[in-house]
C-alpha cells in the first residue's frame, strides 16, 4: 500500500512517526531505525547517541525508556520452561515486581519433553511457546518481555535435585539436542530477526538446592569439559539460544555470577552476539551469602568484566546497580568501554527482536489470538502422549475400549501446576480423560482414594470448622461434624500431608507471616514460594497434634512456634514450640480412601491407580528431595488395589525417578508421565487404550534404592560412578528404557570400520516392526572405548532417532556423528584428544537393551607420558582423595585446596631423573604444612618433602622447592599433603 505517512507501534511500545515511500522505507529520524543498514552500524548509531548514564541504566533487568530517542521500556526475564509461564510487572500495586501468571498452553514439564526423544516435536512445542509469548507481548510489552528464560539445560546428574522437573536428561548429548530444538522453536527461523530471545539456565553445574548459593560444585577438568559444558554448547553453537543465565552456585570456589567462563568459554562457541544475565539476586549474593567481594561496587564490576551483561537484582529497583556501576567507573574498576561492550550486546538482542524496525520486524503481527489456539491444544495432547513412558507391561495394556474401569488415586481427579508453569486454560484429569475415551462403551468409577476426616478437640469436644466460598479462618467451634468440618487428607510422603476442605474444595494454608497467624481454607492447590499448606500429624497416645511444616525458615524469622493451638476466640494459631503444648485432636474418619478404592477396584474389569508427586511439595526450587520413594500412603494404596484386582495399572505422575521396586515386581503394568499439562488426562487415556502407542524413553537412570546414590553435593560423576555413564550397579530401569505395544527387530548394522579424528562415524541399521501394531521406536547408538589411558564411560549416547515403523514393515535408519565426539579431555596437555583406539558401537532400544554391536577403529593419537618438567596445574590430576577444588584468584584459574592426609595422583610420568620439586602454593593459616612427593602409591617411596610456609592469604602465592631422590623412569607420582595448602601448579625436574 502506498502511503505518505504512517504511525507504527514498536515492539517496546514506543510510538514513532516515520516517512515511507513506495517499495522501501526511507531514512527515519535516526539512522538506528533504518532496517536497511547493517546491524552493527545501527547499534553503533544508537550506542553513540546514548549518554553514559543512559547506558548504565540499561544494565539492569528493568531497562527504562529513553524518551528523547523514542525508545521504550525493555525488561528481561519472561519464564517459559514448558509453555509461557509468568513474568513480573513494573506497574503492579502495591508492590512493583509482583508476578503475573499467563493463562497459556501448558505442555509437559521439561523432563517430560525430554522423554519424547523427538527433536521435531520439541521444536514445534518451542515454536508454540514463542508464538504465545509474542501474543502476550503484543498486549502488554512492559510485562511480557521477549527475552525468555528457558530452556533449563542443567544435567539431571542427581534425581534428588529439587528442580529435576526443569531439566531434560542426565546425558549431555540428549540434553543438547532437546534444548536446541526447544530454543530453536522459540527463536524462530528468520536468518536475522528473533521471534523471542531464549536464555539457557543455569550456567554451570547447578544440580543441588541445599545451600545453593554457598555450595561449590567441584568440577575436575574432565567432568567440566566432557559433561557439564557439553549440555550448554549445542544450543549456543547452533545459534538457537541468545545467551546464558549464571547459576547461583560456585564452581571450584568461584561464584558463577562473576565467573569469566561467560566470556572465555560460552562466547567462544559462537560468532553471534550473546546477552548473558545473572540469576535473580545473584549480584547481591557476592557481597552477602558468598562474601566474595567486600562491596557491591567491586562485585558488580567483576560481574560485568566476567561477561554478564544484565543484572537481575533488587526487583524493579535499579538504583543499587546503577549507583555501584557509576562508582566502579569513578574508581577505575570499570572503563566506559566495559559498559559499552555490555550495552552493545543488550542492544543487539533488542534490534534482532525487531524493536527498532519501523514495522516491529517479521514477528510483530502475532497477537493474543495465537494463545491457546486449537492447534496448540492438539499439540499439547500430542506432546503429552509422546512423553509418556511405559515402564512395564505384562499384557494388561492396552485396555479394551469397553467395560468397567476403576480410576483411583490422589492424582486421579486433579492436575497440578509447578513453580514455572503457566495457568492452564482448561484441565483434563486422568479420570475425566479415561471416562471420555470409554464414552458409552463403559463405566468409570473411583475417586481420589484419600481419607476424609474430622478433627475433634480433646479439650472441648468441638470440631475444627472451615468457611465456604473463599474460605475463612479455621476455628474449633463446630458442635458436630458436617461438610464444613470435613477435610480430605493427601499424603505426600515422610509424614507430610495437605488438608483440603470439603466446604469449598480449597486447601488449608497459613494465613500470613505473623507469629500467631491463623489458618484459612483458601488455596486452590499447594502453591507459592513458601508452600504454607504443609502439615504433619503426630501421634500422642489416643490423639494427634498438628505441626505446621511449611517453609522452614519462616520460623527462624518469627519465632519457634510451629505446633497448632487454639486461641481464646477458638481460631487455630501457631502457639507452641513443641507437641507438649499443642492442641490435641481425635481424628474421626468420615470415609476411608483405601476402602473406597478397594471397593471400586473389586467391582471393575481393570483398576488404574494414579499416584505421584505434588510439584510444590515433593522437591522444587530451593528444596531437594531426601528420598525417591513413593509416599507411604500411595504405596499402601497400590498394594491394596492390586490385592483387590490383579488387573491393575499404576500411573505414576511425577517429575523424577522413583524407587518402584515393589511395584515393578508385583504390578502388571506401570506407566510414567511427568505433570504433563492441560491434556494430561486425554494423553494418559490415549496410551492406556492404545490410541497412542507409547514410545517415550527415560532420560535418567531409575535406581532401586536411595542407597545407590552418593552425596548430592558430589559432582565428580567419574569417581563417584554416577549416571548411566559410570554407574556399576543394577538399575531398576536403565537410561533410555521404555516399552511399546509393538515389537522391533534390528538387523546387523553397517558401521564405518575405520575413521580419522576429523571424520564421521556412520551407522545404518534396518529396524523391522514384527508386530501387528504401528509404532515408534527410538533407535539409540552408544559407544564404548575399549582401551584408553583414562577411565572411560561404560557406554555413551552418540546418536538417536525416533522413527515410525508401520506394522510388518522395515525402516532403514541412518545415524552419524563426528569422530571428534569420541574424544575426551586430556589432562596431561589440557586439550581434547581422540585416542587411537577401538570403540564398540552399540545399537539398541536403551542403554541396557543392546540389540546389535559392531566396532570402529579410530586412527587417533596416543597420549604420551606426562612431562612434569613443564608447569603442571594441580587440578590436572588423574585421581585424588579428600581435596577440594578452589579458585586460584578471584578472576581466573583453578587450584587444589588440600588438607592433612589428602593426596593427588599423576599417572604415567616420564621423570627422567628428576631432582627438584617446585610448587606454587598458598597457605592462609599460620605455621607450616608439607607436600610429600611419593611414588606409585600414597604410602609409597618418599622422594622428598616441600615445606609450605604461611603466605597469610589464600590468594597470596609463593614458591616452595625440595630436593627429591630416586625419581626416575615412568612412574605414578603422588603428592601427599600434611596440612592446609592451596596448590596452583608444580614441576618435577
UniProtKB/TrEMBL annotation:
Protein name per UniProt: Glycoside hydrolase family 3 C-terminal domain-containing protein
Family under the similarity heading: Belongs to the glycosyl hydrolase 3 family.
Cross-referenced SUPFAM superfamilies: (Trans)glycosidases (SSF51445), Actin-crosslinking proteins (SSF50405), Beta-D-glucan exohydrolase, C-terminal domain (SSF52279), Galactose-binding domain-like (SSF49785)
Sorted UniProt keywords: Hydrolase, Signal
CBM6 domain location: 870-989
An example molecular function term from Gene Ontology annotations: hydrolase activity
TM ranges: none
Organism: Actinophytocola gossypii
Pfam families the UniProt entry points to: CBM_6, Fn3-like, Glyco_hydro_3, Glyco_hydro_3_C
CDD domains registered for this protein in UniProt: beta-trefoil_FSCN_BglX-like (cd23343), CBM6_xylanase-like (cd04084)
Lineage: Bacteria, Bacillati, Actinomycetota, Actinomycetes, Pseudonocardiales
Amino acid at each position: 500500500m502506498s502511503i505518505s505517512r504512517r504511525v507504527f507501534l514498536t515492539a517496546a511500545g514506543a510510538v514513532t512517526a516515520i516517512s515511507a515511500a513506495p517499495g522501501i522505507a526511507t531514512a527515519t529520524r535516526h539512522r538506528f531505525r533504518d532496517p536497511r543498514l547493517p546491524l552493527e552500524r545501527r547499534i553503533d548509531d544508537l550506542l553513540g547517541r546514548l549518554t553514559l548514564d543512559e547506558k548504565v541504566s540499561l544494565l539492569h533487568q528493568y531497562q527504562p525508556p529513553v524518551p528523547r530517542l523514542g525508545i521504550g521500556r525493555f525488561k528481561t526475564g519472561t519464564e517459559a520452561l514448558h509453555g509461557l509461564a509468568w513474568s513480573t510487572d513494573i506497574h503492579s500495586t502495591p508492590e512493583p515486581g509482583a508476578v503475573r501468571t499467563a493463562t497459556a498452553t501448558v505442555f509437559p514439564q521439561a523432563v517430560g519433553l525430554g522423554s519424547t526423544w523427538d527433536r521435531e516435536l520439541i521444536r514445534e512445542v518451542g515454536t508454540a511457546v514463542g508464538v504465545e509469548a509474542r501474543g502476550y507481548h503484543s498486549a502488554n510489552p512492559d510485562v511480557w518481555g521477549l527475552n525468555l528464560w528457558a530452556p533449563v539445560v542443567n544435567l539431571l546428574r542427581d534425581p534428588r535435585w529439587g528442580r529435576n522437573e526443569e531439566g531434560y536428561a542426565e546425558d549431555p548429548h540428549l540434553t543438547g539436542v532437546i534444548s536446541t530444538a526447544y530454543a530453536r522453536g522459540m527463536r524462530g527461523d528468520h536468518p536475522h530477526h528473533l521471534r523471542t530471545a531464549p536464555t539457557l539456565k543455569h550456567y554451570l553445574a547447578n544440580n543441588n538446592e541445599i545451600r545453593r548459593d554457598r555450595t561449590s560444585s567441584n568440577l575436575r577438568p574432565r567432568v567440566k569439559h566432557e559433561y557439564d559444558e557439553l549440555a550448554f554448547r549445542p544450543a549456543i553453537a547452533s545459534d538457537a539460544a541468545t545467551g546464558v543465565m549464571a547459576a547461583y552456585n560456585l564452581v571450584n570456589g568461584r561464584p558463577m555470577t562473576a565467573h569469566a567462563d561467560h566470556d572465555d568459554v560460552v562466547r567462544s562457541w559462537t560468532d553471534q552476539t550473546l546477552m548473558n544475565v545473572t540469576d535473580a539476586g545473584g549480584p547481591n549474593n557476592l557481597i552477602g551469602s558468598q562474601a566474595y567481594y567486600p562491596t557491591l561496587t567491586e562485585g558488580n564490576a567483576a560481574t560485568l568484566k566476567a561477561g554478564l551483561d544484565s543484572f537481575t537484582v533488587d526487583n524493579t529497583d535499579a538504583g543499587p546497580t546503577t549507583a555501584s556501576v557509576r562508582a566502579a567507573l569513578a574508581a577505575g574498576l570499570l572503563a566506559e568501554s566495559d559498559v559499552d561492550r555490555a550495552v552493545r550486546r543488550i542492544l543487539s538482542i533488542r534490534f534482532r527482536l525487531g524493536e527498532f524496525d519501523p514495522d516491529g520486524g517479521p514477528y510483530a503481527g502475532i497477537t493474543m489470538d495465537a494463545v491457546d489456539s486449537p492447534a496448540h491444544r492438539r499439540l499439547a495432547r500430542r506432546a503429552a502422549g509422546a512423553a509418556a513412558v511405559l515402564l512395564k507391561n505384562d499384557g494388561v495394556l492396552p485396555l479394551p475400549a469397553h467395560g468397567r474401569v476403576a480410576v483411583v488415586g490422589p492424582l486421579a481427579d486433579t492436575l497440578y501446576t509447578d513453580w514455572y508453569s503457566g495457568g492452564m486454560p482448561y484441565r483434563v484429569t486422568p479420570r475425566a480423560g479415561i471416562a471420555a475415551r470409554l464414552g458409552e462403551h463403559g463405566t468409570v468409577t473411583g475417586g481420589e482414594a484419600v481419607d476424609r476426616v474430622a478433627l475433634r478437640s480433646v479439650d472441648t469436644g468441638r470440631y475444627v470448622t472451615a468457611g465456604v466460598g473463599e474460605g475463612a479462618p479455621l476455628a474449633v467451634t463446630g458442635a458436630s461434624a458436617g461438610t464444613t468440618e470435613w477435610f480430605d487428607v493427601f499424603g505426600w510422603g515422610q509424614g507430610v500431608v495437605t488438608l483440603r476442605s470439603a466446604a469449598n474444595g480449597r486447601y488449608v494454608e497459613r494465613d500470613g507471616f505473623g507469629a500467631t497467624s491463623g489458618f484459612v481454607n483458601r488455596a486452590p492447590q499447594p502453591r507459592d514460594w513458601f508452600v504454607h499448606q504443609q502439615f504433619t500429624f503426630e501421634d500422642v497416645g489416643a490423639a494427634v497434634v498438628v505441626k505446621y511444616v511449611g517453609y522452614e525458615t519462616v520460623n527462624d524469622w518469627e519465632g519457634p512456634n510451629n505446633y497448632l493451638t487454639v486461641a481464646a476466640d477458638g481460631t487455630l494459631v501457631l502457639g507452641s514450640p513443641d507437641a507438649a503444648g499443642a492442641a490435641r485432636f481425635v481424628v474421626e474418619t468420615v470415609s476411608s480412601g483405601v476402602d473406597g478404592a478397594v471397593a471400586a477396584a473389586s467391582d471393575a474389569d481393570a483398576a488404574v491407580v494414579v499416584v505421584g508427586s505434588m510439584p510444590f511439595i515433593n522437591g522444587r526450587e530451593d528444596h531437594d528431595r531426601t528420598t525417591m520413594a513413593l509416599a507411604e500412603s500411595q504405596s499402601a494404596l497400590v498394594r491394596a488395589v492390586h490385592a483387590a484386582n490383579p488387573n491393575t495399572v499404576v500411573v505414576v505422575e511425577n517429575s523424577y525417578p522413583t524407587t518402584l521396586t515393589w511395584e515393578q515386581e508385583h504390578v502388571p503394568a506401570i506407566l510414567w508421565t511427568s505433570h504433563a499439562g492441560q491434556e494430561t488426562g486425554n494423553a494418559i487415556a490415549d496410551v492406556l487404550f492404545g490410541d497412542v502407542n507409547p514410545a517415550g524413553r527415560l532420560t535418567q537412570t531409575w535406581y532401586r534404592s536411595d542407597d545407590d546414590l552418593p552425596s548430592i553435593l558430589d559432582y565428580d560423576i567419574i569417581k563417584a560412578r554416577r549416571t548411566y555413564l559410570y554407574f556399576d550397579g543394577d538399575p531398576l530401569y536403565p537410561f533410555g528404557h521404555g516399552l511399546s505395544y509393538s515389537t522391533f527387530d534390528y538387523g546387523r548394522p553397517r558401521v564405518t570400520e575405520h575413521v580419522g579424528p576429523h571424520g564421521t562415524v556412520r551407522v545404518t541399521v534396518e529396524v523391522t516392526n514384527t508386530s501387528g501394531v504401528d509404532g515408534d521406536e527410538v533407535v539409540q547408538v552408544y559407544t564404548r572405548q575399549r582401551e584408553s589411558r583414562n577411565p572411560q564411560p561404560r557406554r555413551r549416547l552418540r546418536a538417536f532417532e525416533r522413527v515410525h515403523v508401520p506394522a510388518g514393515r522395515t525402516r532403514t535408519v541412518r545415524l552419524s556423528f563426528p569422530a571428534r565426539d569420541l574424544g575426551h579431555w586430556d589432562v596431561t596437555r589440557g586439550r581434547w584428544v581422540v585416542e587411537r583406539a577401538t570403540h564398540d558401537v552399540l545399537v539398541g532400544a536403551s542403554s541396557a537393551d543392546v540389540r546389535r554391536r559392531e566396532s570402529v577403529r579410530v586412527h587417533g593419537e596416543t597420549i604420551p607420558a606426562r612431562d612434569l618438567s613443564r608447569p603442571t596445574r594441580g587440578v590436572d590430576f588423574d585421581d585424588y582423595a579428600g581435596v577440594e577444588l578452589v579458585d586460584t584468584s578471584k578472576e581466573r584459574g583453578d587450584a587444589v585446596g588440600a588438607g592433612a592426609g589428602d593426596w593427588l595422583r599423576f599417572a604415567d610420568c616420564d621423570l627422567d631423573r628428576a631432582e627438584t620439586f617446585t610448587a606454587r602454593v598458598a597457605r592462609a593459616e599460620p605455621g607450616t604444612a608439607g607436600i610429600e612427593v611419593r611414588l606409585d602409591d600414597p604410602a609409597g617411596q618418599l622422594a622428598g618433602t616441600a615445606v609450605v610456609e604461611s603466605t597469610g592469604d589464600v590468594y597470596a602465592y609463593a614458591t616452595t622447592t625440595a630436593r627429591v631422590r630416586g625419581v626416575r623412569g615412568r612412574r605414578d607420582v603422588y603428592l601427599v599433603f600434611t596440612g592446609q595448602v592451596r596448590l596452583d601448579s608444580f614441576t618435577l625436574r
